[in-house]
Each structure stands twice: as C-alpha cells, then as structure tokens.
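Human: Here is a favour to ask of a fellow structure person. Comparing notes only helps if you start from a blank page. I am asking you to supply a protein in sequence and structure-token form. Write it directly below this note and I will take it from there.

Assistant:
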Amino acid sequence: MLKKYCVIYSLAFRKHSPPEHHEYYTDDPITCEDFVENVLRHGMGLHGIRRDGIDLPQNEFDRIVKIAASAVASKLICTSMRIKPDEERFRFGFSS
C-alpha cells in the first residue's frame, strides 16, 4: 500500500556530483512536517514532497516548509535567548 506522504531529501550537497536522494514515508501530515523541520534544522537538502505518489502543488509545499522553518526559528530563538515559547511568540511572532 502506498504511504500518503513521501519527503525526498539528501544528506549533504556534494560539490562535483549530484546528491544521493533518500525518501521518508509517513501517513501522518504532522509527522511529515516534523521530518521537514529536522531536514531544515540539520541543513540537509529538501528536494520535494509527494502526497499519494504525486508531487505537492507549489503552494502546499511552500506551506509545509514555512511551518517547519517557523518552528525551527522559534526553537532556536528560545534556546539562544533562554526565553519561554509564549514570550518568543509575543516578541517575534513565530509559532512553536
């Protein structure tokens, strides 16, 4: 059976050869967003997201990346400034 979501990513960019692509499969959209968050946090290459075997439309792909990037920024701000998520949300507006 085909998993609902597939995230296509690479571990690192190589200078002279194309990156080896890996695929992460899940049925849960929240788990998909969490995985994209980890890909962004660790500086891996994000090459695409598929739902039911079809590439997501650009606006849905961008929405998932925006949510993940917002969560990464929120956690980094809270950690580096030693503030609570509520204060971070009030001061900077990222959702955690």
